[in-house]
Records
---
Amino acid sequence: MVETPTPTSPATRSNEATTSPDERGTLDVRHKAIQRIVEHAVLQTPGTVAHRSTLGRLTGAGSPKATITMEGRAARVEVDVAAIWPCDVDRIATAVRNTVLTEAFRLSGVQIRAVDVTLHTVDSASVEQTTRRVQ
């Protein structure tokens, strides 16, 4: 009896190992995944903070907030960022742009063509406190 290859059979796995990555298929990264990656990258940038206004807490809106526009296999990113005033706005905006460009490509493989950063300054009393408890 001849065994036909199935997706989990050893014959199929050995064929996958010998084919080049171009022949195996493509990776489809969704808008929401890129949005989450960008928002996480923003919060890793020194000087940025998570911020939600009173209305934002009710509606679920806040900062950072990324908007992704796909252009084929590349993307344009618009991101709203919060930072505590006083701060060096130019330095933070440049750092956010650079971090998003490198981290979004590294984690998703999607080339980011442009990053538009809108930086909002807030007072320290309105910043979300994110503390973790260890149990």
---
Amino acid sequence: MQEEGYIAKLLFPEGAKDVKLGTVVAIIVDNKDDVSKFKDYSGASPAAAPGKKAEAAPEEKRSCPATMERPQSTPDSAAAGGRIFASPIAKKTAEEKSVDLSKIQGSGPNSRIIKSDVESAK
């Protein structure tokens, strides 16, 4: 992750929609003198980037948390180890109504307990 540098090229306008995950949206360089090298860069081809560092991994070798496979969830909201998956508002509502979350089947994403599950459990 680069924390400092100069924006050499923005490849999408502000507010652009439907930009695919993993798409390069900007070129950032370490030296201000390198900004001019990217004035004609279009982003059409990764090899077209002048001065692009060779240390960038090929696309297929990069791992991205959003594209990694997630383990299948268990049918109940409590996973191995007794952890209960519930939204913060569901936890607060359960505490206020003295409802045991381990007795509730979640209807949210990945069987997560949501507020409506807690409200209908009493």
